[in-house]
Design a protein that fits this description.
Belongs to the ALAD family. By secondary structure, the protein is of the alpha/beta class. Helices cover 37% and strands 16% of the residues. The chain has a single domain (25-325), classed as Aldolase class I (TIM Barrel), CATH 3.20.20.70. The chain has eleven helices and ten strands. The structure holds zinc ion (ZN).
Length: 326
Amino acid sequence: MDISSILQGGYQHPLSRSWQTRRTLTKSMFMYPIFITDDPEASVPIATLPGQRRWGVNKLEEFLGPLVQKGLQSVILFGVPFSCVKDMRGSPADDPHGPVILAIRKLRALFPSLFVAADVCLCEYTDHGHCGLLNLDGTINTAPSVERIAEVAVNYAKAGVHCVAPSDMMDGRVKAIKRGLIDAGFGNKVTLMSYSAKFASSLYGPFRDAAGSAPAFGDRKCYQLPPAAKGLARRAIQRDAAEGADIIMVKPSLPYLDIISDAAELAGDHPIACYQVSGEFAMIHAGAAAGVYDLRTMAFETAESMVRAGATLILSYFTPEFLEWL
Ligand SMILES: [Zn+2]
């Protein structure tokens, strides 16, 4: 056998196997997505997302306290309002008494070391369920959408959030949010994590159950990327980096590892995030329940594949488990 044929000598020991990894998983790589609803006492299981709940603001201490003890370092908040009056411009998104702003204030007070991010979108708050404002014919009206989304982001910043994460996919919103943050005095205080390459995926179903955010009509294909659109994703990543995004995100993760890799190449000086979305999480649970693989082994394999592709931050519902496992 030729010398160049032999690879196994380099990974015959657990330690030498670990040296083959360019970057390893750490607890700080995990950001935990949290659903906040407007009943302050809520603790409601979400049937399609094993182990996940909708939480009320008054339950956050008992829910997150033990996780912070175990090393939880960041969360991202999603508002799930049920009792608000939704309208065409998503007014409840930045209601000072709405669940997201109350949760930001509460978490900052409860856990000073916790990095608090907030998803920024309008779909949970508009009566039509779309992520922006609409023209009369039902198409997206870009300019006022972007203006409104930036306004919401700035109001989350004023409530004390560390990071705003626009998931709406409206053209120009990263630049508008960055401008808004700078003009309001938060340019050096708040991180902008852009959902840059967010694909129109069939893996969002459990999230829509959890958040009640399915659109009233049509779908989101005019603003979320077509799954096969590698070129568009690369353009969106470069655009958002140029418009002032501090972190570039790819969503979902597992079917889009090549896009994570592209992001790491195109925006290699930025942290690269990926969102292991609700459907990916549910799929891993379903496969494990069906005996296809071991849950923990598969959770590691998928998360490690994301890091291998170039991710430095993983938004995952497995975060509490990884705090145990790592
Ligand atoms: Zn949305």
